[in-house]
Write a structure and sequence with these properties.
The protein has 11 helices and 20 strands. The protein is α/β, with parallel strands linked by helices. A 7-stranded mixed β-sheet has the order 16-15-14-17-18-20-19, sandwiched between helices. Strands 2-6-5-4-1-3 form a 6-stranded mixed β-sheet. Helix 2 crosses helix 4. The longest helix has 17 residues. It is globular. The chain binds S-adenosyl-L-homocysteine (SAH).
């Protein structure tokens, strides 16, 4: 059996069920654990603490999966954890189990959110009858076959496609793994999100065409699902600017809610083409302006031109991938938020987001505060937003919280 012993004083997070052990916390390794092998974790006193999966190269050497000495990492445990994760989603208001796919307002959701579902390194997103998986740690990668069989068994998915192409794979020295793992290749999926409800006659559900094999992330930004509806409620009869629009998630919701016109900016022309298609499939007939380019530059250009908007959405990609990038990320957030505030007519609404986990909500608010000072505008927070409930945050793992948003009134 492979075992590790922690340095004196480093057992507290483990005792508090935090699932990560960093290399600096380890005093000795007994045995020679290979990629993803099970290791037992001991305190300096010799007391058994927990059991986890070994990562040979990552700074996070062990991902813990149990604090119960009798529990083994076998198929039974994986099945139990997967069942629990899936059952939790089936009870959410907007996400239903596979069996109800055809009737639920939304047919996509994150079924498994890694550490937050006590399955470190495993992400599973459901798009209709298909699953997209990411195996982001050595522990999960070596158990891929079991996980895929279990997922097929538990969901009856028509196809399971792997998209383990994130930066985490690099840190784990895992090859980028993409491709069909089970069943049939997912076709272009018609994803549904609930239509606008804040009006006397609720609007039809919205449709988005998602290519899960090629699209960004696992194809769509499921984490923003609830926020798209929230922000849309501020767009009725307004002139809206959707920055970093991707395939137009926020813009389409805003348009259906009754925006007067919508301008969309993204650096990806593929994403803009998809946004245009979403205008058509959702029968939206208000004016749309699609702009390919860099948000930082375009907002400056609009300021020089004296253009004004009534609602601006800022949903940039992750700016800080590593701790050393945080300072730069903060400057980036401040810059776009200041520019957006300057482009809002008095009383306009700014919906601003950050998906960098390394920038906590409090710090993000400070940055937006700084942007308000520089823009010389009074800014009120109307709403605080976070990731959708199918991306839950386990209290013992606050790192699972990454998306934060503020809806602000800018005077
Ligand atoms: N709001 C979207 C998700 C945005 S993801 C939704 O709800 O679906 C971030 C997007 O920003 C990506 O589509 C990416 O192509 C785009 N992007 C990244 N850097 C950019 C930049 N500097 N200027 C414009 N777009 C950028």
């Amino acid at each position: 059996m492979n075992t590790i012993t922690l340095r004196p004083g480093r057992e507290r997070p483990v005792q508090h069920y935090h699932p990560w052990i960093f290399s600096g916390a380890i005093a000795t390794v007994d045995g020679s654990p290979g990629q993803g092998d099970v290791v037992d974790v001991y305190a300096t006193t010799g007391a058994w603490l927990a059991r986890g999966m070994w990562s040979s190269v990552s700074q996070i050497k062990v991902r813990l999966f149990t604090w119960n000495a009798d529990e083994a990492l076998d198929v039974g445990l994986l099945r139990h954890r997967l069942e629990r994760a899936i059952a939790g989603r089936a009870r959410l208001p907007e996400a239903r189990s596979i069996a109800e796919t055809e009737t639920a307002a939304s047919n996509a959701c994150r079924l498994v959110y890694a550490e937050s579902d006590s399955l470190p390194g495993l992400i599973v997103d459901r798009y209709g009858a298909y699953l997209v998986i990411q195996l982001l740690t050595q522990g999960m990668a070596v158990r891929a076959d079991h996980i895929i069989d279990l997922l097929h068994d538990l969901t009856g998915a028509h196809g399971i496609y792997e998209r383990s192409d994130t930066e985490t794979c690099e840190q784990e020295a895992l090859p980028i793994a993409e491709g069909l793992r089970q069943g049939e290749i997912p076709p272009l999926i018609t994803l549904r999100e609930p239509g606008f409800r804040h009006c006397s006659t609720p609007r039809p559900d919205l449709q988005f065409m998602v290519n899960v094999c090629m699209g960004q992330k696992t194809g769509f930004y499921l984490d923003q699902a609830a926020n798209r509806a929230r922000v849309a409620a501020y767009c009725v009869d307004r002139d809206v600017l959707d920055c970093f629009c991707y395939s137009g998630g926020f813009a389409v919701h805003a348009a259906q809610a009754g925006a007067r016109r919508v301008t969309l900016i993204d650096s990806s022309t593929t994403a803009l083409a998809q946004a245009q298609e979403h205008w058509i499939v959702n029968n939206i007939n208000i004016p749309i302006e699609l702009v390919a380019g860099d948000v930082f530059k375009l907002l400056r250009q609009y300021r020089a031109e004296g253009r004004l908007f009534e609602v601006i959405i800022l949903d940039p990609p992750k700016f800080a991938h590593k701790q050393v990038q945080v300072e730069r990320a903060l400057r980036g957030y401040k810059d776009i938020n200041m520019l957006a505030m300057q482009l809002l007519s008095p009383g306009g609404v700014l919906a601003t987001f950050s998906c960098s986990g390394r920038v906590p909500a409090e710090l993000f608010q400070k940055v937006v505060f700084g942007a308000g000072i520089d823009a010389r505008r009074d800014v009120q927070i109307l709403e605080r937003l976070t990731q959708a409930p199918d991306h839950p945050v386990l209290l013992s793992f606050p790192e699972g919280e990454y998306l934060k948003g503020l809806i602000c009134r800018v005077w």
